[in-house]
């Protein structure tokens, strides 16, 4: 086991129970198990899911208190367990939502580790990246290339991975059209860029002229504002000459999904990423069958997807505006997330 000069305690943003006040406290630095990495976190993105987990709004297990959230951490490996062979101390590594899997079940064997029934999750079943030192199984940690910006790569570890995999799940090929609902937000902005980088043509849906300017600047070919168009479905069908080949649903309301079902091209695929609370899906089965429409969920991504998503970023194809905050500012960040006034992504600086 190799180690640097690691302190015994560290600063972490602690939550004592679901929805309780979040306070920065001194907590022990965890010890890596035989197949784990201890990563000195430099930056951590703040994901919507962190807020929902903290508020108990999603059916996800809350870490046992004192709980630490956060699952978009970029940093440097400072200690490795005795069985680790794919990382050494000093390597840059990511700490993402899927923190460990069994690697032996049928899902894991097929490369769908994110669907493994025995996953460990960062800021879910174990403490996350809103602390200075975090653990991850070496098998689940992505390498972060030396040339990339450590602050900007943090959101790629969840937001980037999620939209990249969702785009793959649409089966839209280069030259075909993908529609993205909620395209002007943090996830949507990344989705537009990944789609472009994958050779897809993009139809962005969002509200307001500012979002239109933003989406088009990122590479959207078409923009539709559902609050302006009298008939959204007709408009999309006309612009795309028969409907987009796939849809990635990122908006948190259900209406855009109903529209998508009507405008998606026959034999097209709708991929749902967003998790509106208590939402259900009712579809017209007759159209579903006769138009051979696929509706599916997409949940983060595999280890291979993670490496690919980081590679697109490292090649300079993905950029996301970030705002940098301190650890104690996370409650303020949640306020802003709640109000929906964040354009890109908030990243917490833990490097000092
Ligand atoms: Zn996330
Ligand atoms: Zn498994």
TrEMBL record:
GO MF annotation: an example: alcohol dehydrogenase (NAD+) activity
Record-linked SMART domains: PKS_ER
Cofactor(s) needed: Zn(2+)
Enzyme Commission designation: 1.1.1.1
InterPro entries per UniProt: ADH-like_C, ADH-like_N, ADH_Zn_CS, ER, GroES-like_sf, NAD(P)-bd_dom_sf
Keyword set, alphabetical order: Metal-binding, NAD, Oxidoreductase, Zinc
Residue ranges the record marks as coiled coil: none
Tagged with keyword Metal-binding: yes
EC main group: oxidoreductase
GO cellular component: cytoplasm
Family statement: Belongs to the zinc-containing alcohol dehydrogenase family.
Full protein name: alcohol dehydrogenase
